[in-house]
Design a protein that fits this description.
This protein is of the alpha+beta class. It has a two-stranded antiparallel sheet with strand order 1-2. Strands 3-4 form a two-stranded parallel sheet. Helix 4 links the parallel strand 3 and strand 4. Helix content is about 35%, strand content about 10%.
Length: about 190
């Protein structure tokens, strides 16, 4: 927002998540959040919980026109952002599907994009039997509204590869998406 409002020329965006106390991990175990077999299966019938991961991730943002003018290395252009409030849910592992679908609709309208133009999404996909289907159903609902044909968009999650980086997961997803585009490899 600071870039958009011309409050700054460069923004440093970072996320960090470190599990420094055993009580944090043990709390996740006791709540039933952790995968019993030590593997994360996002969007899979074998899904049985998440695997925590640690990350410190940073990106530098500039207005596109300034970065282009100053010949900065540009990895991606962010067209828009959105945020929502889930409202009442069945708990931390159960997002609100209606709120997610509405966020997708609002964001796609705001940036003027049709779902038929979207080829790849890095989702939250935590590997839980409850949360992952809610997320996929919200995406499916919004994509069907545009008559987007099945198989038009790849959907993945980084969590089976590096775990759920908790507070850093948003920025980790952005970096993963940018690297996939840069290397043309999912």
């Amino acid at each position: 927002l600071s870039l958009k409002n011309d409050d700054c020329d460069i923004a440093v965006v970072a996320g960090a998540s470190l599990i420094s106390r055993p009580e944090t991990y043990l709390g996740m175990v006791h709540s039933g959040m952790i995968a019993s077999d030590g593997k994360c299966y996002a969007f899979d019938q074998r899904a049985n919980g998440l695997i925590p991961g640690e990350a410190v991730a940073v990106i530098i943002l500039r207005k596109f026109s300034i970065a282009e003018k100053e010949n900065n290395r540009i990895y991606a252009k962010i067209l828009g952002t959105g945020i929502n409030y889930d409202g009442k849910t069945n708990g931390i592992t159960a997002p609100n599907g209606k709120a997610q679908a509405e966020l997708y609709r609002k964001l796609y309208r705001k940036i003027g994009i049709c779902t038929k133009e979207i080829e790849y999404i890095i989702s939250h996909g935590t590997g839980t039997k409850l949360g992952d289907p809610i997320e996929m159903n919200a995406l499916d609902e919004v994509f069907r509204e545009d008559d987007c044909p099945p198989g038009n968009c790849a959907v993945t999650s980084v969590k089976p590869n590096i775990g759920h980086t908790l507070a850093a997961s948003g920025i980790v997803n952005v970096i993963s998406l940018v690297m996939a585009m840069r290397h043309k490899l999912i």
